[in-house]
Amino acid sequence: MEKRTIELDIRGMTCAACANTVERTLNRTQGVDDAHVNIATERAKVTFDPSIVDLSGLVGQVRGVGYNADVRRAILPIDGMTCAACVRHVERALNGVEGVLSANVNLATERATVEYVAGVATTDTLKEAVSNAGYQVVEDWSGDPMESAPDMEALRAQDARRRLWVSWIFTGPIIVLMLLHMVGIHWASMAVMDITLAILALPVLIWAGSETFVSAWKAVTHGTANMDVLIAMGTAASWLSAPLSLFTPLASYGAVAAMIMAIHLTGRYIEANARGRASQAIRKLVQLGAKEATLLVDGEEYRVPLSQVKVGDTLLVRPGEKIPIDGMVLEGESAVDESMATGESMPVTKESGDEVIGATLNQEGLLKIEATRVGADTFLSQVIRMVEDAQGTRVPIQAFADHVTALFVPFIIVTALVTLVIWLVFGEALQGLVLQASTLLPWLDPQASGLTLALAATISVLVIACPCALGLATPTALMVGSGMGAERGILIRHGAAIQTLRDVSVVVLDKTGTLTVGQPRVTNVVALQGSERDILRWAASVEQGSEHPLGQAVVQEARNRGLELTRLEGFEAVRGKGVIGQLQGERVLVGGRRLLADAGIDASLVEERLAELESEAKTTMAVARDGEIVGLIAVADPIKPETREVIAELHALGIQTAMLTGDNRKTAEAIAAEAGIDHVVAGVLPDGKVAEIKRLQERYGAVAMVGDGINDAPALTQAEVGIAIGTGTDIAIESSDVTLVRGDLHGVVQAIRLSRATFSKIKQNLFWAFAYNVVMIPLAVVGMMHPVLAEIAMASSSISVVTNANLLRRNKI
User: Fold this and answer.
1) Which are the contacts of 55, defined by CB distance < 8 A and separation ≥ 6?
2) Cα angle, residue 376 at apex, residues 374 and 380 outer, rounded to 5°
3) Per-residue b/e over 445-474, b at no fewer than 16 CB within 10 Å?
4) What's the pLDDT score for residue 108?
5) Residue closest to 461 by CA, chosen among 406, 422, 403
6) Residue 641 DSSP SS3
7) Strands (E), 39-131
8) What HEC string does 715-745 produce?
9) 626 Rama class: left (phi>0) / alpha (psi -120 to 50) / beta
10) What are phi and psi of 334, to 5 degrees?
């Protein structure tokens, strides 16, 4: 193969050493003849042999040493696709463009998601490739594809409805005239009737069905074939039989041509509406966003379009208005309905310093907020983008269907031609089969000539085959599932996670912030002298001078109980032991055994109670006053309220649980026992978590890791499925496959149930699509189908697949 030279934009280089690292790595790559990196232009010029290494391999080498090639993503709305064969043609055309790393086309959303190397490929070359394949990239007239998509669907639905009505306006009289003839009312000779019906069929084919013929023509002239080719061949052959019947023994199927096209267009219309319902979740998200904002400048209010709001602007949000963008409250207090983001129905109180999410509803008070994220960086934009990403990917089980659809239409055309030959050669034998079956199948005409039966069988084969069902089986279910997840605060980044998550054997949960609240809290106050309030007030009064998290937890608990703290007269922090303070002339100590021992205080009297609290994974501090222990305070990071229930639900789903933590084993086992967790992996440093995940994978199989998405990023990546716990606007977590917007562990169970329900629908759809074609095509070959019934069956197959996907919404997740 001829050598190729390309230039890659490299990101992340800061000095000559960086350039040397990238250059050396590329030159060492097998298949690369020469590579030169220019730090000034941040570009690498590479000459390589495409038969040994491809572009994605070069990009992988650059990424492997910690840098990035400038890889971009484009989402292209494609017009003119009608079936799975179209999807394959568009994907093949896009993947053939130099610089494209991957291209996935979704028939249900009619969009292509393309990753390409900037500088090697451009959006113009992508559009040209689509055009050369016989399809069209729809130009976005609004400038925002997320806003224009619903408009495009509405226009398509209107056009489909118009064509549907026109087709039936002419097909209706055809059916009436045929019925009159069948009941013995002969209003004209057979020849006149056949010609009249053929003339009535022309508007159905030429106008209502024009899109089908144009699509078929484009496919054929570009060397491909799609479902429209099959419909066009079937209806054209049916209509041509009308004039041929005037001077041959062939029966006229001119009226049948109109019926086939009318039924086909009816199926398309119903299918389009079903697709619209499948994508309604993302449309709802788009519609949630505010269109305008009240901008505050020097005390004056200005109502401006959202596109004019910049980071740092001050906005005013009145009660009942949507918060226009992500921001931080500067002034005011209100209850905000965040259900669109988290799925939580209870309003959340927001006050000065709190973050707010764009598109959520301000219910009560007047809020003055500062814009922190605008445009594509807002929470809502990220959610929509993540849902689109998921819908633009593939589920592994779809691979076999893709291989089948690549050859499906050519196979059907060959099968139809073989059917015609078989009937012309073995017509008598097959007519005998039709005669026997006619007693059970009333639509069969045993008196028809061999040529007529041959034509009927051939047309039936062409119109009964349904590549559409194969193409829609996976993406429609994936679209509904990912949309349902988004509505519940479960954001699925990759479609493959749907299939993988259903198969996990073990769910591994990080302890701090995932199983637990993530902040130490006072759990026990034991008073040996005085009351609990006295013990807490003495300890908090001393700890107010400390910056240690445990000390701050004691102070916060005292404030929560409304205690008035004593003025601190002197303070000393003893590293690793505790604190000492002077309160109204009295010396008060708060700390552990070593602090007490240094002060000469005997702790044996409280040792039993200390050990009991520590066995419950609680850090216990003694409070001593004037040389005598007066009480104990236990502090712990408590498990979340829902932890026990979630662990029980995971067990009910047949999934084992494990906890991963850097804490000592004694503390970890106490928390695991409280939560009901099966396996404990304790004393693990952050860099050792990956090794522990690998060990669990070897022992138990597929693992899902649940963490906060920051310290746990390597472990999330190593696991088959990484589930990141997000809070509010913190959802841009690249290392996870699934992000839970709420910090609620119930989302883990819901995500698994959703994946199982979605994958179940995908399997049902694929089984139905394959079974339909395997059963129906042979029946058509041997003449057991009438062309009209064949078209009804084909339309029903596509509709049933999309409808079944929509039934996913009935599942309780």
Assistant:
1) 6, 98, 99, 101, 117, 120
2) 85
3) eeebeebbbbbbbbbbbbbbbbbbbbbbbb
4) 72
5) 422
6) coil
7) 43-48, 68-69, 71-79, 100-106, 111-117
8) HHHHCCEEEEECCCCCCCCCCCCEEECCCCC
9) left
10) -160, 165
Long-range contacts of 191-195 (CB under 8 A, 24+ apart): 191/246, 194/242, 194/245, 194/246, 194/252, 194/254, 195/242, 195/243, 195/246
Alpha-carbon dihedral 642, 648, 649, 654, rounded to 10 degrees: 150
Give me the pLDDT at residue 142, please: 41
The DSSP bridge partners found for residue 633 are: 525, 621
Instruction: Return the amino acid letter for 480.
Output: V
Contact 149, 283 (CB under 8 A): yes
- 723: β partners: 706, 738
DSSP 8-state class, residue 600: T
Per-residue pLDDT reduced to its tens digit, 380-415: 777 777 776 666 666 777 777 777 777 888 888 999
**Closest listed residue to residue 573, CA positions, set 550, 607, 606:** 550
As a whole number of angstroms, the distance between CA 687 and CA 664 comes to 16
Per-residue CA distances from 180 to 238, 385, 447, 637 (Å): 21, 57, 20, 83
Phi then psi dihedrals of residue 123, to 5 deg? -65, -30
Burial 40-76 (b: 16+ CB within 10 A, else e): eebbbbbebeeeebebeebbebbeeeebebbbbebbb
Q: Which of 754, 757, 731, 279 is nearest to 488 (CA)?
A: 754
Residue 21 — φ and ψ, nearest 5°? -65, -45
Distance CA 43, CA 775 (A): 57
Residue 711 and residue 685 in contact, taking contact as beta carbons nearer than 8 Å? no
DSSP 8-state assignment for residue 95:
H
Query: How large is the greatest C-alpha to C-alpha distance in the chain, in angstroms?
Result: 123
> What DSSP character marks residue 605?
G
Q: Which residues of the chain have pLDDT under 50?
A: 141-150, 728-733
Three-class SS state of 71? strand
DSSP class of 110: T
- Pairing state between β 619-625 and 628-636: antiparallel
Q: Tell me the residue type at 452.
A: T
User: What are the tens digits of pLDDT across the range 569-612?
Assistant: 888 888 778 899 998 888 999 998 888 888 898 888 888 888 88
Report long-range pairs for 788-792 (Cβ below 8 Å, ≥24 apart): 788/256, 788/259, 788/260, 788/263, 789/443, 790/459, 790/460, 790/461, 790/463, 790/464, 791/234, 791/259, 791/260, 791/263, 791/264, 791/463, 791/464, 792/263
User: Bridge-partner residues for 622, per DSSP?
Assistant: 591, 632
**Residue ranges in 426-531 assigned as alpha helix (H):** 427-437, 450-464, 467-487, 496-501
- Parallel, antiparallel, or unpaired for β 326-331 and 355-356? antiparallel
Which two tokens mark 554?
């004691």
C-alpha span between 721 and 719 (Å, rounded): 5
Closest CA to 472 of 109, 111, 90, 164: 109
Token digits for 19?
């350039």
Record the pTM: 0.71
Active-site residue identified among 510, 663, 712, 737:
510
CB neighbour class for 538 (10 Å; exposed up to 12, middle 13-18, buried from 19): buried
Task: Concatenate the DSSP letters of all residues of 318-375 into one string.
Answer: -TTPBP-SEEEEEE--EEEE-HHHH---S-EEE-TT-EE-TT-EE-SS-EEEEEEE-G
Question: Which residues make beta-bridge pairs with 315?
Answer: 295, 369
- Tell me which H or E stretch contains 412: helix 398-425
Q: How many CA atoms lie less than 13 Å away from 210 in the CB half-sphere? A: 8
∠ CA 714-719-724, rounded to 5° = 70
Cβ–Cβ under 8 Å, residues 543 and 590: yes
Coil/strand/helix, residue 590: strand
Residue found by looking up tokens 């789903």 in the block? 653
- CA 750 – CA 747 distance, rounded (Å): 5
Q: Is residue 510 annotated as a catalytic residue, yes or no? A: yes
